[in-house]
Design a protein that fits this description.
The protein is of the alpha+beta class. It is built from 2 helices and 5 strands, in the order ααβββββ. The chain has one domain. Helix content is 30%, strand content 24%.
Length: 178
């Protein structure tokens, strides 16, 4: 009887260890899958934005001076380009005509397995010689930053309720040949 009880305890311990390993494996798989999908969502938004004109004032014109660009305080959508809340139908593809229209833009993308991915974008002027540094004035360089989150993405160690999210950035450079 004692041997049977010992065998059951050993079997229970083994079963719990296997279940813990399987659960950890599934969790890691979902995290990795969510990160890969987040990269796809972010890169898609970056590609879309980078295909637009550099600035509202360069859509149909050439600009030769920094002062000819949109003021940093006015970056964002112009009249007729507004999208309320999260855009889950990709209205940005037809409404937006320049890179800074994506400033404070928010998009939701649904994945059948992982649910909603939420992407937010910001656009800032950056120093041309140091693109990691924001510029408070117009330049011929803008940085677009896209942050994507999903419930299955890894959590912050400091705050388990906070999702780390994925951040991708790209530089838009005004390249009109004068």
């Amino acid at each position: 009887m004692l041997l049977t009880l010992g065998a059951l305890v050993l079997l229970s311990t083994l079963t719990l260890n296997i279940n813990g390993t399987l659960l950890s494996s599934v969790s890691t798989t979902l995290e990795m899958e969510s990160i890969l999908n987040a990269v796809s969502v972010a890169q898609s938004m970056l590609d879309e934005a980078m295909a637009k004109s550099f600035d509202e004032k360069t859509v149909n014109n050439r600009i030769y001076t920094y002062s000819g660009m949109t003021s940093p305080s006015l970056l964002g959508r112009e009249s007729g380009e507004s999208i309320a809340g999260f855009d889950s139908t990709y209205l940005s593809r037809t409404l937006f005509d320049d890179v800074d229209d994506y400033h404070n833009y928010r998009r939701r993308v649904f994945n059948e397995r992982l649910g909603w991915f939420e992407a937010t974008a910001t656009v800032t002027y950056v120093q041309e010689t140091a693109p990691d540094n924001n510029s408070s004035t117009q330049t011929f360089a803008k940085r677009i930053t896209v942050r994507v989150t999903n419930d299955y993405m890894p959590r912050s160690n400091a705050n388990p309720d906070s999702i780390n999210g994925l951040i991708l950035q790209d530089l838009a450079i005004y390249r009109q040949y004068f």
